[in-house]
Design brief:
By secondary structure, the protein is an alpha/beta fold. It has ten helices and ten strands.
């Protein structure tokens, strides 16, 4: 059985593709999900896995350090921080930095990823509010959530007017609708890469699993999950 540790935002797509891999090869896959920060903490504490799927920079550093097999890494998919509203609600204007700013300041409650959890979206947004000079205003209306799925859920149920998190975590939640990415140049794209852990006991199977994630026929699976295929 292959053990895979994977960034949480990729849950729906990786579960689907792992099921395809198991049907095609007979190899079972044990999937573990978490924020990139949480997964890195688990690895630092001594946990092992056969395949790691994390932010591309993190995987590159692990490859350089010898924790990931040299030459085994591949970019898998990318997603962006997006803005969500409740399905059926009128979409506010977020097309430019100015209109985005006005929309954020005009919202009653904004659900967003909690930076304290270690997710890439939450960490990025903290810096964004500071750069925009509206950190204090956002703090008054922010509703931090432990996961992107919870951000989208708060929007879907009407508790929050807007939700900001990775698009890949919004798309699976019924009742929430992505109205777009953060406008350029405020946006942030996250590319995820997969690599074979140096502790992997079956590198051929691990390589085959990564190939399943990256193959062209996976493009639609990634798109339905709110990602762009990076192959």
């Amino acid at each position: 059985m292959l053990k895979v540790l994977c960034a949480r935002s990729m849950t729906s797509a990786v579960k689907s593709l792992a099921a395809d891999f198991s049907r095609e090869t007979g190899n079972e896959v044990d999937l573990g999900f978490g924020t990139v920060g949480a997964l890195q903490d688990r690895l630092a504490a001594g946990e092992t896995a056969d395949v790691l799927i994390l932010g591309a920079p993190a995987v590159a550093k692990m490859e350089q350090a010898g924790a990931v097999v040299s030459g085994s890494t591949r970019d898998i998919a990318r997603t962006s921080i997006g803005v969500a509203i409740r399905e059926g609600a009128p979409a506010p204007d977020i097309s430019t930095p100015d209109t985005f700013r006005k929309t954020m300041l005009g919202a009653r409650v904004i659900a967003l990823s909690d930076a304290a959890v270690g997710g890439s979206a939450g960490t990025y947004l903290v810096g964004l509010w500071e750069r925009m000079g509206i950190a204090d205003e956002i703090k008054q209306k922010a509703m931090p959530q432990k996961s992107g799925g919870e951000v989208a859920a708060r929007v879907a149920e009407g508790t929050a007017d807007l939700g900001l998190t990775l698009i890949g975590e919004i798309v699976p939640v019924k009742g929430a609708r992505v109205i777009g990415k953060l406008p350029s140049p405020l946006g942030s794209d996250t590319t995820y890469a997969a690599g074979i852990s140096a502790t992997c006991g079956d590198r051929m199977a691990a390589a085959a699993f990564i190939a399943t994630l990256a193959r062209p026929t996976a493009r639609e699976v990634w798109a339905m999950a709110g990602f762009e295929w990076a192959g």
